């Protein structure tokens, strides 16, 4: 057991990993659950959109939609770079973070090794988010090229299905990167106290579940499907 992590720290880390990995595994890989999610509903709507784009003479609006998706993905990917840079700076100056936390009421000031473990976890999370988001960005780019190359006859329907699959996979990686943001914010609570970390991890799972399975948007998309 690392000497700089207390048993409570290790428990909080285990709950955090269970929340993130468990939620992603159940939602993305259990078909009966995945079919009820916003993600699945949007996959179908994107497929319909691209099939409906086949007979269009002008697809500027369709390519513009993909460009919009690329802009938001690019923004989050760029933000990851700033967060990674900030985490590297915090890693190089642990005494600064410890001094700040020491002034926070009820905060449990970690040792230097404990502080580095916290910052390293944030660093790992946002490096993963960066890779997911940049891969999503590339796939949206591929999708825009496929949309631009669609024909205007019924024979182009299979090509539209392929374009939809590429765009759907881009959306899936975008969603994975966005989840990393949510759980990365939960790790900030670990800076204050392991109990706060546990509560933040559980709250993130609750919020993700509420938005993906119990929101008004989810109900509207399922009804429209």
From TrEMBL:
<keyword id="KW-0472">Membrane</keyword>
<keyword id="KW-0812">Transmembrane</keyword>
<feature type="transmembrane region" description="Helical">
    <location>
        <begin position="180"/>
        <end position="206"/>
    </location>
</feature>
<keyword id="KW-1133">Transmembrane helix</keyword>
<feature type="transmembrane region" description="Helical">
    <location>
        <begin position="6"/>
        <end position="26"/>
    </location>
</feature>
<dbReference type="InterPro" id="IPR006747">
    <property type="entry name" value="DUF599"/>
</dbReference>
<feature type="transmembrane region" description="Helical">
    <location>
        <begin position="113"/>
        <end position="131"/>
    </location>
</feature>
<protein>
    <submittedName>
        <fullName>DUF599 domain-containing protein</fullName>
    </submittedName>
</protein>
<dbReference type="Pfam" id="PF04654">
    <property type="entry name" value="DUF599"/>
</dbReference>
<feature type="transmembrane region" description="Helical">
    <location>
        <begin position="75"/>
        <end position="93"/>
    </location>
</feature>
């Amino acid at each position: 057991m690392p000497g700089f992590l207390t048993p409570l720290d290790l428990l909080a880390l285990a709950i955090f990993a269970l929340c993130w990995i468990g939620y992603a595994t159940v939602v993305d890989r259990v078909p009966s659950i995945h079919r009820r999610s916003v993600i699945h509903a949007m996959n179908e709507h994107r497929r319909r959109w691209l099939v409906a784009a086949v007979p269009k003479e002008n697809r500027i609006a369709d390519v513009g939609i993909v460009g919009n998706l690329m802009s938001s993905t690019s923004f989050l990917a760029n933000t990851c770079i700033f967060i990674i840079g900030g985490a590297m700076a915090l890693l190089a100056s642990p005494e600064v973070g410890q001094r700040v936390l020491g002034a926070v009421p009820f905060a449990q000031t970690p040792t230097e090794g404990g502080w580095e473990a916290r910052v390293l976890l944030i660093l790992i999370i946002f490096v993963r988010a960066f890779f997911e988001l940049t891969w999503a960005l590339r796939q949206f780019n591929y999708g825009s090229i496929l949309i631009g190359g669609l024909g205007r006859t019924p024979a182009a329907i299979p090509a539209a299905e392929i374009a939809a699959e590429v765009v759907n996979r881009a959306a899936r990686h975008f969603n994975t990167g966005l989840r990393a943001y949510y759980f990365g914010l939960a790790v900030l609570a670990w800076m204050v106290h392991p109990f706060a970390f546990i509560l933040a991890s559980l709250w993130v799972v609750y919020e993700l579940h509420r938005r993906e399975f119990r929101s008004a948007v989810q109900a509207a998309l399922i009804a429209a499907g």
